[in-house]
Write a structure and sequence with these properties.
Number of strands: 9
InterPro entries: SWIB_domain, SWIB_MDM2_dom_sf, SWIB_MDM2_domain
Number of domains: 2
Low-confidence stretches: none
Strand order of the largest sheet: 2-1-3-9
Structural class: alpha+beta
Protein name: DM2 domain-containing protein
Domain DM2: 53-130
Number of helices: 6
Pfam families: SWIB
Largest sheet: 4 strands, antiparallel
């Protein structure tokens, strides 16, 4: 979704040390980037990549992450994990089934004793954060004997088309 390269501010100055790219709906597919800057010495840089997850992925508030044993996920995954917690701990009101009784952990997270199930997504919005960027610290080395390429493995989740087709079988 976006890429930011931060070069040494002391070498390139406050107005020329950042290189930014942000994907828009009109952006064509690309398989790489090339950034060039003049220089005569090695340069430390930080590369930040924010991936374009579809559906969007979110990072959970630390308290909720501990409770649900997941650090990030889609909205659907997060709500499913919370619902599983509610069912496992029998927190759904047996009389008024749209209400959930908050145990001590949920009370400390949601700051209430009871929640209507339809209100959960709104409460969760305050507890989910954008995914963390991928951060790569790299040194651009000059000189003929220096390696010019570096490779990094980045795990990404993709839809499993076989699994999806089996669901409709």
């Amino acid at each position: 979704r976006s890429l930011v390269i931060e070069l040494d501010k002391d070498l390139y100055g406050p107005d020329n040390h950042l290189v930014e790219w942000h994907r828009t709906n009109a952006t064509a597919e690309t398989d790489g980037f090339q950034v060039r800057r003049l220089g005569d010495q090695n340069v430390k840089c930080t590369i930040l990549m924010i991936l374009d997850h579809s559906p969007p992925q979110y990072r959970l508030d630390a308290r909720l992450a501990r409770l649900l044993s997941i650090n990030n996920g889609t909205r659907q995954t997060i709500i499913q994990a919370l619902w599983q917690y509610i069912k496992t701990h029998k927190l759904q009101d047996p009389e008024e089934r749209e209400f959930i009784h908050c145990d001590a952990q949920l009370q400390s997270i949601f700051e209430c004793t009871r929640i209507r199930f339809p209100d959960l997504p709104g409460k969760l919005n305050k507890l989910i954060l954008p995914s963390e960027p991928i951060i790569i610290n790299h040194t651009i080395c000059l000189g003929a004997d220096q390696k010019k390429h570096a490779c990094y493995d980045i795990d990404v989740e993709v839809d499993d088309q076989v699994r999806d087709s089996m669901r409709t079988f």
